[in-house]
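Figure-free illustration: sequence to structure, shown twice.
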Amino acid sequence: MTAHQNDTDPSGISDFLLNCFVTSPGWQLWLSLPLSLLFLLAMGANAVLLITIRLEASLHEPMYYLLSLLSLLDIVLCLTVIPKVLAMFWFDLRLISFSACFLQMYIMNSFLAMESCTFIVMAFDRYIAICHPLRYPSIITDQFVIKAVIFIVARNVFLCMPIPILSARLYYCGRNVIENCICANMSVSRLSCDDVTLNRLYQFAAGWTLLGSDLILIFLSYILILRAVLKLKAEGAVAKALSTCSSHFILILFFSTILLVFVLTHVAKRKVSPDVPVLLNVLHHVIPAALNPIVYGLRTQEIKQGIQGLLKKGW
């Protein structure tokens, strides 16, 4: 299929064609069912968590507001990526407009960075709760959450904005087949006839500045938490302290492990199929989103009680 020509578009292209799993087309068949189930699970579980936190007065606390933000980010990321991927798998709807492609690119980059930044704030919340419990009510307030949300949105909206802008300003002279399931920055940029060095440099700098620094700060906070926990002398204090942050730590492992594997497969791309990073990129937008609310729902007594309370009211 050739590019759609558009006289008003200076790039000469008005549509892109997404071409998933070039070397392993059979992956689409077996991946479509688990992917659709994960998508439904992510949507349903996050919706239940949001409704529970919204309706249960006992959950109107800063920690649960941050969890609500995480659920909202997960929902947006899933809706941005997975329906289009499933439409390709089931109906071969591989065409995506020029503007929709760069909008998807922007949402993916900015919301992924927002999620990473939310984990930092949640790690800080757990650090204060365990290391400075007496000061927790005066530090982690509703005003703190509002300021944190403003920072999370502002930082990532503005720092991620150049990524799609740099790609959109390139001249696309004919090739329009993106060898990916999504409009990833470099998958799109490499189709242009221009020099993409600036795109590569900014993607690298933004990735390490945002996600890299976030992960370092998160794990630094947990080192401080672990050090403080080991100093606790009271009976059962260590177990109680660790249980308060275990759910959050599991979520971070979901988020960072898939991201780390994705980075490693890119580094070793000559030794693995080029479809592996594509697969990991898709799964990274749905697996954490599906598992995050389940982990918190199963491991947090207050949320379990809130869900049970809503079910009883419903009956």
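We now fold a second protein in the same way, so the two outputs can be compared directly.
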Amino acid sequence: MDVPEGLNEEYYQISPDILQSFNKFRPPLDIFMFMEDVGRIAPYYKVGGRLSKEQIEQLAGLVKDGFIFVSRKDHPVYVKHIAYQLDLVLIDRNLKESEIADIFIEALTMRMNEFLDQPVAAVTDKLWADLMVLTEYLWNDPYRIKALAKRLHKEHTLAQHSVNCGVLALAIFIRMKGKNFSSGDISRNHFDRLTAGFFLHDLGMSKIPLFIREKPKPLTTDERQKVDKHPMLGYEMLTKLDLKYKEIEACVIEHHEKLNGKGYPQKKSGRDISQLGRIIAAVDSYCAMITKRPFAEAIDAQKAAAMISQDKAYDPEVTKNIQAWAMTLKK
């Protein structure tokens, strides 16, 4: 069926795969049917109701023929629903890029929350599956990351910080690599693993007590020593989680190393720090600055980018690209 011009601005079609992901008798949002004889949309099901077995069969046929739509006004409901089956974004051709970005941020934050609360193999597998949906989405068009990078969380939690860093580090990596994606210089395995590394860089913080992570006052010497152990704690966790890949290891162990050798835990300096480590180190600091934390207000994105670019502890090529990205937010 040819969708009338302008219809997709207010509604979008749902596929059989999307329909199957809904509760069979009680879909989570209003459903509309296109009346071909009069060329307009009419209500088919209102949320809160219950479909009969006959309607369920009829609905499946109508979806297959392309006559069933949902309202873009219900996008927030749709985002929360599809976040539990993230691979559906690769199937649904009617979603806009901005809508897909909303879904990724919602889904990945939910998965990171689950993982950091319970970093065990079964939960790790679910997070990995969702990260692989993200890399599949970006592989053929890496610049899709821009829409996600404009949706960073504004408040700091460990999960939200991890998602912010994962998304922005990918955006910076892609900016730095440019056309190398299409030239074949970057393998899919490498891209998959560095993506996971960016998102998982702070997993050792899951072993730090919550009262320390969210303390609104300066940490004591003992508390600071506990926090400083989190890169090594995270590195040790990788073996148990079967995540011993060099890209992930670099991000986890090096994200607090500094070019001047004054970082931790290994006090590496200069080019002894891997490129992925240099990227996530600067991004980790920047993402902390631009979010509201228990002990500090958020700093304006452009101001934070200018501040970090003046800090000799970070790779100037990375901070230059962070500044360039921050400037795009003004447009």
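Summary for the second example: The domain at 96-328 is CATH 1.10.3210.10 (Hypothetical protein af1432).
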